[in-house]
Design a protein that fits this description.
This protein is mainly β. It has helices at about 60-65, 155-160; strands at about 1-15, 20-35, 40-55, 70, 75-95, 95-105, 125-140, 140-155, 165-170, 175-180, 185-195, 195-200, 205, 210-220, 225-235, 240-255. It has a 12-stranded antiparallel barrel with strand order 1-2-3-5-6-7-8-10-11-14-15-16.
């Protein structure tokens, strides 16, 4: 059994006229995984999201809970926007073990993508995500790799074409080469590239990739607790935009120790 709290802050700024437009997306997710047996794990991952945009942001404005929408330039919104159902299971191919994970995401709330009175905070549609994980260890070096297929904002318009729609399809791929300083401390590089395509009614599909490069650190304590810090630079095709992410995660695992107490 596993419980994880993970907070991701995405920060973006771009120049408009003479001012810089700052946009922040803060997502707090809680993942609970339960092992049915050694071959099957199921879980759930609800998320709380805060979006804030301003040309002159302050910490106080960001921490405000009250929603406001002045224009496309200045707004703030906080809501539980959705959750994901998770199925995880291992597969062995030619004596090599892989882990597969499948997620179905569904929205919570109304007008998440915004309207004339509300700002965008999340997609109104469903999501599907299938991933495969692989880990390789050699002495103190570790290589973790992950790839998958993801679809976002799936609606009746996407499937049946009976209404307007805007959806994404992507292939998120991540490689994490890392080094264990000792049994309780691990450092790694984050290398992520995601080919992505957007689909909209009456508009040709658009190629919209992004990449993420950063550095992460894990510390294990109290036998089965883990705390993780990640900082990264986010790259998109949009010119004149600078984006960064800062993340922190806390995880507890029941039933096994994360490190040897003899170290």
């Amino acid at each position: 059994m596993e419980l994880q709290l993970f907070n991701n802050l995405y920060s973006e700024n771009r120049v408009i006229t003479k001012d810089k437009l700052h946009t922040f997306y803060n997502t707090l997710s809680s993942t609970f995984i339960y092992g049915i047996n050694s071959k099957l794990n199921i879980g759930v991952r609800p998320r709380l999201r805060k979006v804030f945009r301003s040309t002159h942001p302050t910490v106080g404005d960001f921490l405000k809970i009250k929603e406001h929408y002045l224009s496309d330039i200045s707004f703030s919104r906080l809501a539980i926007t959705g959750s994901e159902l998770i199925i995880r299971h291992p597969i062995t191919i030619k004596n090599i073990q892989f882990t597969f994970q499948h997620q179905i995401g569904f929205p919570i709330g109304n007008n998440l993508s915004g309207n004339s009175q509300k700002a965008y905070i999340d997609w109104d549609g469903w999501s599907l995500h299938s991933q495969v994980f692989y880990s390789y260890y050699r002495n103190k070096f570790q290589l973790f790799a992950e790839s998958g297929i993801r679809a976002d904002n799936i609606t009746s318009g996407t499937i049946l074409g009976l209404s307007s729609y805007f959806s994404y399809a992507s292939i998120p791929t991540t490689v994490l080469p890392g080094y264990s300083i000792n049994q309780r401390n691990h450092i790694y590089f984050l290398c992520q590239y995601t080919p992505r395509w957007s689909f909209q009614d009456q508009v040709e599909s658009n190629y919209d990739p992004y990449a993420n490069l950063g550095l992460g650190f894990k510390h294990f304590f109290l036998n089965n607790y883990e705390i993780e810090f990640i900082g990264s630079r986010f790259y998109t095709y949009i010119q004149g935009v600078n984006s960064y992410t800062i993340s922190i995660g806390l995880r507890k695992i029941w039933g096994r120790d994360l490190y040897s107490t003899s170290d």
